[in-house]
Write a structure and sequence with these properties.
Layout lengths: L2 H16 L6 H8 L3 H7 L3 H24 L3 H12 L2 H16 L4 H21 L6 H21 L2 H18 L4
Helix pairs in contact: 1-2, 1-4, 1-6, 2-3, 4-5, 4-6, 4-7, 5-8, 5-9, 6-8, 7-8, 8-9
């Protein structure tokens, strides 16, 4: 595993355990087993680290959802529900939103990140046999984000089961009409 991936994986673990406030240079360096100069070489600012962690995490989710989506809409919905249960993803996204709220220069990058994310959702929907118009992708994205935030807040099995049911319901709305 290269240094950049070690940094990203360590950052995800810190997010899972402690939240976005744990992404300090000393903590990330200790968790990744690297010197601070390595961290600042790859990620000069916390905002850049957050953006990279979000992309790293969501790329992994997109790959998983695409694999499961090929099995059918039910598997697709279950994969998305499982992805929303990952506290790291919700914390990273909330951290990015908070950072962009404080620093308007991040807004254009956050908008681009959302466009990239949605571009990855469309093929996953199609692989699951679902329609994937821009509005349908936005709908599924919004439902998944809402479920991720609710699960982070509630953090229990009831919330995870609810997310699975809600994602299946959302997939049902998008099923292709033959």
């Amino acid at each position: 595993m290269d240094v950049r991936d070690r940094i990203l994986d360590a950052s995800l673990q810190l997010l899972a355990k402690e939240g976005v406030q744990a992404l300090t240079q000393p903590k990330v360096c200790r968790a990744a087993g690297i010197r601070q100069s390595h961290l600042t070489y790859y990620f000069p600012t916390v905002n850049e680290l957050l953006q990279a962690v979000a992309k790293h995490s969501l790329d992994a989710l997109a790959a998983s959802v695409a694999r499961e989506g090929a099995r059918g809409p039910g598997s697709f919905a279950s994969a998305i529900a499982a992805g929303t249960a990952d506290r790291r993803r919700a914390r990273v996204m909330l951290g990015l939103v908070t950072a962009a709220d404080r620093d308007a220069t991040l807004k254009p990058r956050l908008r681009e990140f959302i466009r990239e994310l949605r571009a990855g959702i469309a093929p996953a929907l199609k692989a699951g046999g679902l329609d994937a118009s821009a509005d349908q992708v936005a709908f599924m994205h919004s439902v998944a984000i809402g479920q991720a935030v609710l699960q982070l807040a509630r953090d229990n099995e009831e919330a995870r089961e609810e997310a699975r049911r809600v994602m299946e319901m959302a997939a049902g709305f998008l099923r292709r009409k033959d």
